[in-house]
């Protein structure tokens, strides 16, 4: 394929990003609108594929669209300090750590409910009792 002859389907296959998602990224400005063929088909190139792979990887790591937009803007200025990129990654890391802490509390509460259930009748079931009244939870935040 020549430089600008990659179809949207081929771009999706190569980048691992689904066709509707590529259109969405174009619509919200994460991906520049590619030129169109005479038949009005989008024509992508290798830079577009690299950008799609960057976005896909960032999304897999849980970065928000707004952060990805900032990170992509930074790639256009390669000599710029990476302090801003580091700040975005650190903020995201703190959010992930907080989410992990909430999930660990949730896991602990679920484990306690399961451990306290003696498999009797529903009217005596600790799982049902704890779900019915938050006051029975060992951890208030989960």
Radius of gyration: 24 Å
Helical amount among residues, as a percent range?
A: 55-70%
The CA-CA distance between the termini, in Å, is 52 Å
CATH class of the largest domain equals Mainly Alpha
Q: Topology as H/E string?
A: HHHHHH
Tell me what portion of residues adopts beta-strand conformation: under 5%
Number of helices: 6
Please state the overall shape, judged from the principal axes of the Cα atoms. elongated
Summarize model confidence as the mean pLDDT. 88
Uncertain runs: none
Overall strand count? 0
State the CATH topology of the largest domain. Multidrug-efflux Transporter Regulator, Chain: A, Domain 2
Would you tell me the structural class of the helices and strands? Answer: mainly alpha
Describe it for me?
The chain folds into two domains: 8-80, Multidrug-efflux Transporter Regulator, Chain: A, Domain 2 (Orthogonal Bundle); 84-136. It is elongated, with a radius of gyration of 24 Å. It is an all-alpha fold and 142 residues long. The longest helix has 34 residues, at 83-116. The mean pLDDT is 88. It starts with 7 loop residues before the first helix and ends in a 10-residue tail after the last helix. 59% of the residues lie in helices and 0% in strands. It is built from six helices and no strands. It has helices spanning 8-15, 19-27, 46-60, 65-75, 83-116, 126-132.
């Amino acid at each position: 394929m020549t430089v600008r002859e990659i179809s949207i389907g081929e771009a999706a296959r190569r980048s691992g990003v689904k066709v509707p998602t590529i259109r969405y990224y174009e619509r919200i400005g994460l991906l520049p609108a590619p030129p169109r063929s005479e038949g009005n088909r989008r024509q992508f190139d290798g830079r577009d594929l690299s950008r799609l792979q960057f976005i896909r990887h960032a999304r897999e790591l849980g970065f928000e669209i707004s952060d990805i937009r900032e990170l992509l803007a930074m790639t256009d200025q390669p000599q710029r300090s990476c302090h801003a990129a580091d700040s975005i990654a650190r903020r995201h890391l703190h959010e992930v750590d907080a989410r992990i802490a909430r999930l660990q509390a949730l896991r602990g509460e679920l484990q306690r409910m399961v451990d306290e259930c003696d498999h009797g009748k529903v009217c005596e079931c600790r799982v049902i009792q704890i779900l019915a009244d938050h006051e029975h939870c060992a951890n208030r935040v989960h």
